[in-house]
Design goal:
This protein is of the alpha+beta class. Helix content is 34%, strand content 21%.
Length: 265
């Protein structure tokens, strides 16, 4: 076996150190943060009280939960509006969709998010291009959407049978899609919301709502709403205040509960 010279070993060590330093605070990611995020979240990730939440020390920024990572990416890519609570404080600012409409590429998003996951003392794992791709396209229409039992109204409801997450105790996370139709109140309200966001959101066709259902206690939370085009592209996102409520008998979420809770492992 060939021996490694001291100079060669030092070069290897230096390369490792430089790689680690780049992972800690990538110059590319830092530049992207300063350009696209610092005006609201500040250069040091501290945010603006009451308007824009801090990224530094924010559990969502550094989460290792795949669901949370995907949620964080969707916010950056598609934007969101609606109140957020971080550390017990309410933030009411609106997040623009900096990762859609050609603003940032997937590689730039990876650099940006990894900077935020390693800056300000963070030590979270690094995301990859596959994570961004999944956040962009996981909601495209596919055969996994199952029609909910007929509700007798003008709306068509479906749930994503492939993306049901069973949490602790009796908690279930499930996506429910509401298709646009004449007289469908949910999608008519969604259209008005999307229209307020600008012309780039043309093509809105339906909502996808993420619900947290408690099978045992018969309660639910509406977590977030995605506004989507016919081909499944997400063009807007609303984060809801996660307030618990009793599931109304005969409602769409009641019918979905019947489907997903009986499948619970």
């Amino acid at each position: 076996m060939r021996s490694v010279s001291r100079r060669g070993a030092a070069a290897v060590v230096l390369a490792v150190i430089l790689s680690a330093g780049e992972a800690q605070a990538s110059p590319r990611g830092e530049a992207l943060h300063l350009q696209h995020c610092a005006a609201c979240h500040q250069w040091n990730g501290q945010g603006i009280p009451g308007f824009f939440p801090p990224l530094a020390g924010n559990p969502l920024t550094v989460s290792e939960d795949p669901w949370k990572i995907e949620e964080y990416l969707r916010r950056v890519i598609f934007g969101y509006h609606g109140g957020l609570v971080v550390g017990g404080e309410v933030y009411t600012g609106t997040m623009p969709p900096i990762g859609s409409a050609g603003r940032l590429s997937d590689k730039e998003l990876v650099d940006l998010i990894n900077y935020q996951r390693r800056a300000w003392g963070h030590k979270a794992s690094l995301i990859m291009l596959a994570d961004v791709a999944r956040a962009r396209g996981v909601y495209a229409p596919k055969e996994d959407w199952k029609t909910v039992s007929q509700t007798g109204g003008p709306c068509r409801f479906e749930y994503d049978a492939n993306r049901i997450s069973y949490g602790s105790a009796s908690r279930v996370l499930v996506w429910v899609r509401t298709s646009v139709g004449p007289g469908c109140k949910a999608t008519e309200e969604g259209r008005k919301t999307v229209e307020k966001l600008g012309k780039e959101y043309a093509g809105y066709e339906f909502n996808a709502d993420l619900y947290e259902v408690d099978c045992a206690r018969n309660i639910f939370k509406l977590v977030e709403t995605l506004h989507m085009t016919k081909d499944g592209k997400v063009i807007g996102m609303v984060k809801h205040k996660e307030q618990e409520g009793e599931i109304p008998a005969g409602s769409v979420i009641d019918r979905v509960r019947d489907e997903v809770c009986k499948r619970k492992p």
